[in-house]
Design brief:
Layout: E1 2-8, E2 11-17, H1 26-34, E3 44-49, E4 56-62, E5 67-68, H2 72-84, E6 92-97, E7 100-109, E8 112-121, E9 142-146, E10 149-157, E11 161-166, H3 175-183, E12 193-201, E13 204-211, E14 215-217, H4 221-233, E15 240-245, E16 248-255, E17 260-265, E18 268-274
Parallel strand pairs: 2-3, 4-6, 11-12, 13-15
Antiparallel strand pairs: 1-2, 1-18, 3-4, 4-5, 6-7, 7-8, 8-17, 9-10, 10-11, 12-13, 13-14, 15-16, 16-17
Binding site for substrate: 11, 62, 72-73, 160, 193, 211-212, 221-222
Site (Could be important to modulate the pK values of the two catalytic cysteine residues): 162, 211
GO molecular function: diaminopimelate epimerase activity
């Protein structure tokens, strides 16, 4: 199986072009290739294939084999892959995901994609659609008990569920301790991604993320969008925010006129090779 290793701000996946390759059991393959000691090493597997409703279709499999609806860093890498590998010459493309069709604008330099701006669509705030077990129209600054402590969470879906927690210090936060407890908390029927966020200024924030099915990752595109929406809902930032992640920076902008969130960031191809299935 031919593959390409790519990352968006350190959120790394193994990419397989289904126009050329076939995968009988992508969940099983994702578990194997993601292993950082016995496999290629990644946060999961992303496949690129044909679509009946968009230019391309992507499917995302986490390191544990579970399928995710959407990946903001992954979709930027898909855009770079299809352009750089001459599968399209368009600088605005559409990609079908488990969270609907997304439109992407490509910035090209010397024939290669350097930045990708993604229309991530409308944030989902209704609890039953996120999903999260809660009453009311939105979950904003709502208490939740985890590990004997009361936290305040704001919940947003960007096609996949996110719980945003504001903290004083992200660098020394015990993510490995609290991340799994949030992910598997009974209030999240489909588990959840959890972002721990420090607001630096009205236009800047830092974030660490515990991703559902993949543990800590260096970045999360949908999580960064959810974070900025949570900041706005809690009156902590303006509508355009530079977010610092462990793997790099993303710029997130919320447009109140159409209720859409836009993400701009890089995508990087690391290497390609052939996977020999054991």
């Amino acid at each position: 199986m031919k593959f390409t290793k790519m990352h968006g701000c350190g959120n790394d996946y193994v990419y397989v072009n289904l126009f050329e390759e076939k995968i009988a059991d992508p969940a099983k393959v994702s578990i194997a290739v993601s292993d950082r000691h016995f496999g290629i090493g990644s946060d999961g597997l992303i496949t690129i294939g044909p679509s009946d409703i968009a230019d391309f279709r992507m499917r995302i499999y986490n390191a544990d084999g579970s399928e995710a609806e959407m990946c903001g860093n992954g979709i930027r890498c898909v855009a770079k892959y299809v352009y750089d590998h001459k599968m399209t010459d368009k600088k605005e493309i559409t990609i079908e995901t488990g969270a609907g069709v997304k439109t992407l604008q490509l910035t090209v330099a010397d024939g290669k994609v350097s930045l990708v701006r993604v229309d991530m669509g409308e944030p989902i705030l209704k609890p039953d659609l996120i999903p999260v077990d809660a009453s009311g129209e939105q979950v904003v600054d709502e208490p939740i008990e985890v590990e004997g402590r009361e936290w305040k969470m704001t919940c947003v879906s960007m096609g996949n569920p996110h719980a945003v927690i504001f903290v004083e210090d992200t660098e020394h936060f015990e993510l490995e301790k609290y991340g799994p407890e949030f992910e598997h908390h009974p209030r999240f029927p489909k588990r959840t991604n959890t972002e721990f966020v420090h607001v630096i200024s009205p236009t800047e924030a830092s974030m660490r993320v515990w991703e559902r099915g993949s543990a800590e990752t260096l970045a999360c595109g949908t999580g960064t969008c959810a974070t900025v929406m949570a900041c706005i809902l809690n009156h902590k930032t303006e509508n355009k925010v530079l977010v610092h992640l462990r793997g790099g920076d993303l710029t997130i902008e919320y447009d109140p006129d159409n209720n859409h969130i836009y993400m701009t960031g890089p995508a990087t191809e690391v290497f390609h090779g052939i996977w020999e299935e054991n």
